[in-house]
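Dear colleague,

Following up on yesterday's call, I've attached the two folding results inline so they're easy to grep. Please treat them as preliminary; we haven't cross-checked anything against experimental data yet. The first protein's sequence and structure tokens come first.
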Amino acid sequence: MTELLPHLVTLAGMHLLMAMVPGPNTVIVSWLSATSSRGDGLRAAGGVAAASLIWVVLSLQGLGLLLIEAGWLYRALRIAGAAYLVYVGVTMLRAGLRRAHPNTTRSQPRLMSRNPFKAGFVTTLNNPKSAVFWTSAFLVAVPPHAPAWFYAAIVAVIAVQSALWYGAVALMFSAGAAQRHYLRLTRWLDLAAGAVMIALGLRLADEIRRELAIKAAS
């Protein structure tokens, strides 16, 4: 058992570092926490954690390798993910543009039918690169013929870390001081968050375009 602990610590560190890099998950949790409420932020964090677990479990079952082998399927899923990120970004931009001026009273954001858990869940689930990342991580850090408890421990550690990290993001951005600062700059922060999400979606779409161009030229 003790000889497997370094492998588990390695995977835990890789996951935490990946979660801490600002991306769509962080944007959606922080935006809902600041514009709506602490509860909505925590529910979005729960959605992110739940979808992360799905990708981890599917990766353990070999989905990442399947996506790599079936290149067209991987690209199709990424195109859908890019479209969703652009959709979320446009929703945020519209929320910012609806505000007459920065001191406008906060209104409930209409994102994913006002279902914060679904917003976090779908945002994370629309990123098939997670499956490829986890498949690569497991190939590197999981020893051959690892026992069943080790795989269960991986799922448990990632579940706890996801909940703690994104929960902390929700608590930070829903704090009174953070929300007061947000209200003073609400319109511009809505616009900035929307622009970030659209940029992430367009960057993903551009990656796919370049891959197709290289494939066509080869």
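Below is the second protein, in the same order (sequence, then structure):
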Amino acid sequence: MNAPLPPDNAEIARLIIANALDYAIITLDRIGNITSWSPGAERIFGYSADEIIGKPSSMLFVAADEAAGAHLLEMDVAREHGRAEDSRWHSRKDGQRFWGNGVMMVLTDGPHSGFLKILRDETKSKLADQQRVLLLHELNHRIKNTLATVQSIAENTLRASSVDPAT
């Protein structure tokens, strides 16, 4: 009985991209236009491949980052260092924001030179972090108020007892 042949590298790559639904896997040309779009990218951003391929990657950024040229800076950093990591707010097709954490890498193989961007939606984690910071600030505020009250009571008690607090 013959063992099944292993799939070739192209088939393995296709399977990885098709099944990595929690990750947007996107390729860009040298100037930042989208050249490929994974099912995970469709799931995260809301655009179908037909809607987005050929469009500028800047449209995936929130308006302020798009206006500031964040997409160009990300490509420049990737060119200079081979990769550029980013954690920032991005825009979905419906205009909703989400916190994306990703990396952009340079692709240098012949006709496919450009960039590979892999990104994950980490909005839940970002919102949980913001909530933790808010709660810590509130706790610090309450502790300071409690300490101020205790300090005031101690000073008033010392004053009423005619005790010199300096001794």
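For the second protein, one point worth flagging: Residues 123-160 form the longest helix (38 residues).

Best wishes,
A.L.
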